[in-house]
Amino acid sequence: MSSIGLKVTSIDIPKQSKFNRKKLPSPESFWASQGITLKSQQGWIMAKCVFHDDHHASLGIKTETGGFFCHACGVKGGDVLTAYQLLLRCDFVTAAKALGAWEEK
Using one digit for the tens of pLDDT, what is the confidence trace for 50-79? Predict the structure, then answer.
């Protein structure tokens, strides 16, 4: 298995943080921005992986949460925030801000 060289770890966000999960884009709109249509199916769909040069649909995406797992390269994550972090190789706060889920007070 190959790796794209970035380890994403979950961190505890303090309750007074500026992160608002409810403001993340829907899985449907986020994955559409990556050229993948989730349609209105429920469950898992398969698509060409955006994390490596994929020639077959090896990326499974859970339509309700945006979670993903590539059966070829092994990249995985639980939501669109993690997908963004891996795609852009950025940290949590940068990804949250870019996706509109970081509230500046």
Answer: 999 999 999 999 999 999 999 999 999 999
Question: CA gyration radius for the chain?
Answer: 14
pTM of the model: 0.79
CA 103, CA 87: separation in Å to the nearest integer?
22
Residues in a beta bridge with 55: none
Q: Distances in Å between the alpha carbon of 25 and those of 9, 53, 59?
A: 21, 25, 20
The half-sphere exposure of 33 on its side-chain side, counting CA atoms within 13 A, is: 11
Measured between alpha carbons, how far is 61 from 53 in angstroms, rounded to an integer?
17
